[in-house]
Amino acid sequence: MNRRLALAVLPLLLAVTGCTSGTADDEPAPRPVAAERPSPFRDCATLSTAPTAATPGSTTPTPATPGSGTTEPASPGTTAPAAGGQALPELTLSCFTGGAPVELREVAGPAVINVWASWCPPCRKELPAFQRLSERAAGQLQVVGVNSRDSRSGAQSIGEDFGVRFPMLTDQGEAVQRELKRNAIPLTLFVAADGQVRHIDVSGALDDAKLTKLVRQHLGLAVPA
C-alpha cells in the first residue's frame, strides 16, 4: 500500500517542483523590443566650433530681404551688432542623438537658439523657418534647437514631418526658461560671436523675413534671402 501511495504522489510533487523551478522551457518568451528610429537631427559634437565664415571680411553682395529695394553685403561685419547682452545660462543639456552632454555656454556663436516643444502650435509653425535659416546661413551662424518638456516621440515626429535637421538639445526640466526667467515658448536667443545673448525673442512664431531682420539687427549678419 505504501509503495502504491508513493508512486501516486510522486507525479504531483514533480508537477509542483516544475512550476517553481524557473526553467527556460517554462518561462514566457521575451517580448520583442521595438527598434529606435534614427534621429532626424544632427549630432551636437560641433556646437562648440565657431561657424567657418564667422570672421568679417567677405564683401559678396546678396539680395536683400524681399521688399526692401536694396542689396546688402553678406559679410558678417557689414552691421555692428548691438553691444552688451548677457551670458548664456550655465547649464548642461543632453543631445537628442546621445553622446556627451553639452555645456550651453560652450555653444559657439554667432548662433540662434530656439526653445520649442511639439505640443506648442506657434513652435510647430516657425520650425520650418529655422530649418531654412540654418541652410541659408550655413557657415555664418549656427541654428540650435532646445526641445523643452516634451516627449521624445513627439519631438522625433516633428523633426521627421517638418524636415528639421539642425542639432537638438533636450531640456525636460525647463531649466533654460527658469534661468532666463521666461515661462513661455517659443523662445529664441540670438547669441553673438563673443557668446553674449544680444536678444531674447518671445514675440510668437517667427517667419523667414522676421528671422532675417533679427539676425541682422542683433548679430550684424546679412544672410541670403
UniProtKB/TrEMBL annotation:
Gene3D superfamilies named among the record's database cross-references: Glutaredoxin
Low complexity biased stretches: 45-85
Database matches in CDD domains: TlpA_like_family
Signal peptide as annotated in the record: 1-24
Keywords, alphabetical: Cytochrome c-type biogenesis, Disulfide bond, Redox-active center, Signal, Signal-anchor, Transmembrane
Coiled coil: none
Recorded GO CC terms: cell envelope
InterPro entries with a match to the protein in the record: Redoxin, Thioredoxin-like_sf, Thioredoxin_CS, Thioredoxin_domain, Thioredoxin_ResA/DsbE_sf
Species this chain originates from: Micromonospora inaquosa
Protein's name according to its UniProt entry: Alkyl hydroperoxide reductase
Keyword Signal found: yes
